[in-house]
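Example 3.2
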Amino acid sequence: MRIFKREQRSLFGEILDWMLTPLLLLWPISLALTWLVAQGLANKPFDRALVYNVQALAQQVRLGPDNKINFSLPQPASELLRADETDLVYYQVRGTRGEHLSGDRDLPAPPAEQDKGSSYEVQIRDDEMRGLEVRVAYTWISLDAKNQAPALVQVAETREKRSVLAAEIIKGVMLPQFALLPLAVLLVWLALVRGIKPLSELEERIRQRKPDDLSPLDDKAVPMEVAPLVVSVNELLERLKDSIVTQKRFLADAAHQLKTPLAGLRMQADLAQRSGSSEEDLKKSLQQIGRASVQATHTVNQLLSLARAEGGGTHLAQQSCDMVLLASEVLQDCLPRAMDKGLDLGYEGVDSGTLGAQVQGNATLLKEMLRNLVENAMLYTPSTPERQGVITVRVLVDPYSRALVMQVEDNGPGIPLPERDLVFQPFYRALGTNVDGSGLGLPIVKEIAQQHGATVSIDHAHQGSPPHGACFTLRFATT
């Protein structure tokens, strides 16, 4: 269980942690590396002094007349060699048989397995003398050509001066770092405050906006890293603006379209309540009230369908929809009304389950789209004993591209070419048809088709002499 739990993450604090934590972790590593470097730097001058002393002692080793090794060190040189106020200095000279010639007897000899090297080549090693760590410089000296074993000369010195020098180097390097570390923390803090200032400015600009101000934010006035966020907010504002416009238009359209049938209902109700009205007048008023209520109900349903379509069908559940099954359901729903009007309503095309007859989308909206096409055809297609109205629904699949095509064809008056774009506008009705309609069916079809990646086109169903009929074709994009 966490005792301290933040309800909200701080971007400033998180960036500060990620910047200061490596800095604080690298500081002790820098201290260790500086110590190692300081040890190497401290050894160099004193090692050179040891090498000089070994070479000076080696020059005092000579071969006597009896082929014996002789070593003589003047008293002033011996005193100079020992004259060190800080460290202890030891030296030793051994003969060719390892016998002690001069100096300190207990000074350790080099390891036996170590290469003796060439004559007068000075080597350096770390060792221990009388419980103290020492630095030893030594060399082997060959004085004859009879393959006689070489003599050994070595000088050792304790490490006190080296430690003092290394500590001074450490102090000279690390003390400034102690002063610079708080300064670095302060500079990082100030840099972060300056870096997130554009976010604070963006927040202030958004806060000062009016509630009805949905204009896009300026993505050029923010840092590059924040620009994608601003672009996403602008896209959200654009969608919100479209949604508000759709709602306002829906309210305006609903008020406008319901005004007429509601006024008719009120007028017929007033007529029915008039004193002296006969039973026949009352029956006519009730019939007019019934027709007006049906028209108002249809208009409301169409408005709701248009609002739902424009509101974005992608928010509804999507699935693989068999368009043949949807067409069959729509035809069954519309068949009673078609029979009442004497229309021949039928289907042509592929069977259910055919490969390519499926569309990824919302079944409710797709049925609404197809129903509006069929109802539109039923509304504008007359049927008489001399010439029966025929409406055909087709679902076709291209055998090569597997593209899905749906058609609703009728033998009605058709739609003139200049009006084919106008009929998809809300509340537009073709002139001269004398048909009661809301003018919303085809706009609903177009909106739903666009949401499902389909295009709608209108052509003559029959060429030649009128009536030409109308053929609405829906082409779905191949996946």
